[in-house]
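Bench notes, afternoon.
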Amino acid sequence: MEVIKQQNIKIIFFMKIYKIKFYLICIFLFVHSSISSQNLKKADDFFKNKNFKEAYLEYERIIFSTKNNEEKILCKLKKANCYKQLGEFEKAQKTLENLNLKNLDDSLKIKIFYEIALCSYLNGDFKNAENQFLQMNFFIKDKKVLEKYYILQILNYNQLGKWKKAKEIFLLYANEKINKEFLISNINEIYDEKNFPKIKSTKRAYYLSMFIPGSGQIYAGYFKEGILSFIFHISSISLGIWEITLKNYFTSYVLGAGLLQKFYFGNLRRAEYLTEKHNYLKLKKFNENLKILIFKMKNH
């Protein structure tokens, strides 16, 4: 009997210890949850007041401290939004990389794919934006849900020069509108091959300027700048030769070869830049026409 009594005392003792531990864990979780919710409210208040730098620092603090994957992801989405508001699109894109999507519901996954696509588009990473849309199309089977994301897809495919794919999505979008016949007619006109922007190759511009300085600028559509670049190069070579004939070898090297080297490599970079500028302006003009049509569609 004495042994049984001692065993019961031990059981009661251990039960009390586990009870205390349980209470302590509950208190810890409550306090941690309370602190986390306070920090989140603080971060959200910063965001509402347009203090985006302070907001993303608070979100980062929560991301670092929380063990909850969903809470971490939601804070990363909000942090990325802060970067978007600041115009730091590359940072916004990087914030949303390598997220753990395991055990998340489909609606949150879709939101993540869209936000990564949007940040990638704004950052000029159109290929990554396309990859995100492909994943979205895999998860979303309901066309009504997909319709919300059509506009960004259209603009992104235009940037990639995939006109047929952009047109295909645009027609799907137009089919849901009341005045679809009018809209489809406009879409077919805009996406007529003769209206496609004439996109030029930066590689071709680079190699043209490598062999004939200034020709890359002319190829990009900047004729006067190309001619001036060619004249500068010829002048540098002529100056170098002239100084050699006068036996001013040091001057020939500094003025002739030195200037030629600067002009030559600057000319290559400039050819690439002007070609990119040409493509950007052409695509911008093309997309402006689309935006006008999209605006009409949104109002019908």
